[in-house]
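Sharing in case it's useful to others searching the archive later.

Someone asked me privately for the predicted structure of Antirestriction protein ArdA, so I'm posting the question and my answer publicly. Question first, with the sequence:
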Amino acid sequence: MNITIKKLNRENEKTKTIWFPIEEENLDKICSELGIEMTTESNCYIENSMDRNFLRILHNKNCNIDELNYLMKRLDGFSQKEIERFYAASFAENPKTMTELINLSFNLHCYSLVSEFDNLEAIGKDLYLTERQAVSTKELDELDGESYAMDVIKNNPSSIITPYGVLYKNSNEPEQVYNGEQFPPYEWKDTMATVELKVKGGSEFIYIPCSDVEITKALMRLGTPYLDDCKVTIDSYNIPDRILNIIPDDLTSLNKIDTLNNLADKLKEMRSDIRYFERLMDYVNPQTVDEVFSLADSMYEFELFDGIKDIESYGRYMICESGHFEYDHNLEEYIDFKKYGIEKSNNELGSFSDKGYIIYHGYNQKLASLLFENLGIMVPEERELKTLKLYMPLTITTYDIQNDYGYRETLDEPMELGNFEIVDYIDEILEAIERDTLSGEEQRGLMKYYDGHDSVNGKVAKYEFSVEMVDAELMGVAILALNDDLTSSELEKIKGEIIDQVADGYVPKNNMGRSYIEMV
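And my answer, the predicted structure tokens:
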């Protein structure tokens, strides 16, 4: 919801229109810009909003910006029907403060809103379900909805006509969920963990990973400046138990939150690869938080072969199932799987365990002791990564040209630029590629989006795009940093990945006008 705010008690102070709810770090920047200080008291004024219904329920436009943001997080999770019921209940109850509005958002089960009366059967079942909050399908199916609706319409003493329909207050009693000081737990967005901070009988909740400003605000609402004054409890989490159990119990609250934050950041980067990381941990068996971090940094450098527990099984898998060979099962009796397994394993850093076979392609010295002690793998000394460049033709089309009179004009159809023209734009092209780099791509470049847990992922540490002059022609180039040489099949696989990426092209925003760069 767009809301225009300004600092409290400033007549001519500048205003800012913000979309609420807003991330805490972004809100903190806006507060600094407007001079709004961090406090639990009222500190901002609501100047306007595109939602007239919201303005209508505000008894006092002076409010605390954190309470406003919390209320917007609540409304952000509501369906359209729930929002209308919230506005109708606000119209009926006439809440005076933001605290009362927040509490009302937790008590919508105390109200039912009827805006149309053309289907009494459906209305009755909706009234019944709202009041009971949870009923079995059988019970709801057997309910005479029309009779129940008529009983409520005739006998409910608390019906109120609102701009949104008729509001009926049911038998549920409202609760004070928010005490006006500490916010109740509410996961507005997906988090890795919800952590309770407890001190002096009060509780605040932070959602990991979180920013420093979120922690500072939580401590402010608890009335303490120090995190170590708080008892830290993990309330709910999406962090694997195996990882949580590694965190030492004797950490200070400050160090515990810092550790949880760093772990959550790592796991969030992994996205769908968390399960794979758990499998990797089963093989490597890290025992400290530092070992978990080191393993996470190098997780892509491993290959796992679950259930492959001896050399012959490994050779058989590679020949029959890996896809590296065209295998004819009629030739099975002529193939020495064990011999091939021995030859292959002798040329890689691998080890058998009770989980299966594991290969390591990297040089992370922080893992040297862990891998040697638990798997007998000796990590070689770190060496300079090899570089492989894959070149491809470069095509640039543009809609903006300079006509014969020296003026810029826009074409109806795109025009492809010749190579002699492209060369003039090399700096702009490099800037466009740099701008296209997203957060999180610093370590691995576009390998960040490679989904396979295979030898390609282990050998290609990073790749990124650039352009270079080759025999007087400007070419697109994918620059690969390699831990080891690629086999022909691995090279073909990474080429396919790169082709998929370059198909999207780049759209630079500069004096080239509306242009498109494609590497083909």
